[in-house]
Amino acid sequence: DSSLHALESLFRDAGFESVATRSIEVAQRYTGFDDFWQAQTPSYYPTTRIIAAMTAGECARLKESVRQGLPIYADGGIEYSARAHAIRGCVPG
Fold first, then answer.
1. Residue 6 burial (CB < 10 Å; 0-12/13-18/19+)?
2. Global pTM?
3. What mean pLDDT is predicted for residues 5-31?
4. Given the DSSP bridges, would you call strands 17-30 and 78-90 parallel, antiparallel or unpaired?
5. CA–CA separation, 79 vs 71, rounded Å?
6. Would you say the C-alpha torsion 12, 16, 17, 20 has a positive or negative sign?
7. Cα end-to-end distance, the chain, whole Å
8. In terms of CB atoms within 10 Å, which end of the chain has fewer, N or C?
9. How far apart are CA 78 and CA 61, in angstroms?
């Protein structure tokens, strides 16, 4: 669970004080699907190993399925919002 509440609880349960959380929202913009796909499938992601084990046909179907679910603009660009959670705490004493 990566919700702000869960992260705050983890920090407090670990003994941190003055725990503060916040969400950071940004817009992710890609020039096109290939740009998006490359950013989402770096070699260190576990899902990339699964994709690498797929047949060419399975991979093509996966890519098309992902492409159909994305907001693609008239110029071919893809943009959507992304969120990161930030948390900080102080060590007692």
1. exposed
2. 0.64
3. 95
4. antiparallel
5. 7
6. negative
7. 29
8. C
9. 19
Query: What is the DSSP annotation of 54-83?
Result: S-HHHHHHHHHHHHHTS-B-TTS-EEEEEE
In this model, does residue 93 exceed pLDDT 90? no
Q: What's at 49, amino acid-wise?
A: R
56 token code pair: 């060419």
* Token digits of residue 32: 């096109």
pLDDT tens digits along 29-80:
999 999 999 998 988 888 899 999 999 999 999 999 999 999 999 999 999 8
Q: Rounded CA gap, 76 and 34, in Å?
A: 10
Q: What count of other Cβ atoms lies within 10 Å of the Cβ of residue 36?
A: 21
